[in-house]
Amino acid sequence: MAKLGRILLGVLIVLVLLVVVGPFLVPVRPLEGLVPPQQLADPDSKFMEVDGLQFHYKDAGEGAPAMILLHGFSASEFSWREVSWDASCDSTGPLPG
Questions:
Q1: Phi, psi of 40 (to 5 degrees)
Q2: What would the mean pLDDT of 17-39 be, rounded to a whole number?
Q3: Does residue 50 have a pLDDT over 80?
Q4: Is 94 exposed, middle or buried (0-12, 13-18, 19+ CB in 10 A)?
Q5: What percent of the chain is modeled with pLDDT above 70?
Q6: Strand 46-50 relative to strand 53-60: parallel, antiparallel, unpaired?
Q7: How far is residue 95's CA from residue 87's CA, in Å, rounded to a whole number?
Q8: 78, part of any domain
Q9: pLDDT beyond 80 at 33
Q10: Is 9 within the bounds of a domain?
Q11: Based on the structure, what is the number of domains in the chain?
């Protein structure tokens, strides 16, 4: 009975390894028909490059104090659509893209 248990445990370990590592072994084709972010952005959008990464932002308002609105992971400047106009009336600063 202990021998059967070891065999089943070995099979289970192999299956788990296949499920976890297997997807990384399958080659993925390059995506076709992609459009650069600049073509999808609003006309008032701006882009900057920092350490090889490109960032999208919007600059709104004028005067002081400066205010920077940041969104969380997997969000966009759309998160701030309700408050960005009110904030830009009293201050200036970049809005996240």
A1: -95, -15
A2: 90
A3: yes
A4: buried
A5: 80
A6: antiparallel
A7: 10
A8: yes
A9: yes
A10: no
A11: 1
Residue with tokens 């399958």: 26
Q: How far apart are CA 48 and CA 86, in angstroms?
A: 25
Asked, for residue 12, whether it belongs to a domain, the answer is: no
- Rounded to whole angstroms, the Cα distance separating 70 from 77 reads 8
- Residue numbers of the domain that contains 88: 37-96
Whether 51 maps to a domain, the answer reads yes
Lowest mean pLDDT: which of 30-34, 38-42, 73-77? 73-77
The residues facing 74 across adjacent strands are none
Note the Cα 6 to chain centre separation in Å.
Answer: 43
Contacts of 62 (CB under 8 A, 6+ apart): 92
Q: What's the rounded Cα separation, in Å, for the pair 92 and 24?
A: 45
